[in-house]
Input
Amino acid sequence: MEKLPFNAALLVIDLQKAIDDPRWSLTGPRNNPQAEANVAALLAAWRRDGRPIVHIRHDSVEPDSSYRPGGPGHPFKEEARPLPGETVIGKRVNSAFIGTGLDEWLRDRGIATLVVAGVITNNSVETTVRMAGNLNYDVRLVADACFTFARKDRSGRLRTADEVHDLSLANMDGEYATVVDTAAVLG
Output
């Protein structure tokens, strides 16, 4: 495993069944089809070593959201399902720090380093990582344990999921986080 403090927390963001709803890929397929397997590998390593894990769950208040509590998309995907005793923090907006108590939970445990994975790279992941950086956390963003979808830019040009993902990572790398891959974290 990369030389990280023993209490580095793994944050897995919004990896719920909702992300498989076909509405997400209307403009094109997602990238990183191996992301769930990489998240599972990170979770296995953190569990084996007894490191802190925080599962961030999106609890949408939008009635037609695939992330709505009580809906079929609300449960965690199998690869990211929390084990008994693991921390689950629900959020209602993009950032895992807004209205959740996440910052207090981390600080109460002396956690200053975060390893972040999940979805959507350019949405909840980026918002959470940027805020974590602003809150002075040392963040590793695991690029191949995140994914996004194709999206049209402001001029109407369709950008592939890889392009959207790569630009989002470029926006964060070096200022809010250090972008790494699963092998580097586990190696």
Notes: Residues 58 and 155 are 30 Å apart (CA to CA). The mean pLDDT is 97. DSSP finds five helices and eight strands in the chain.
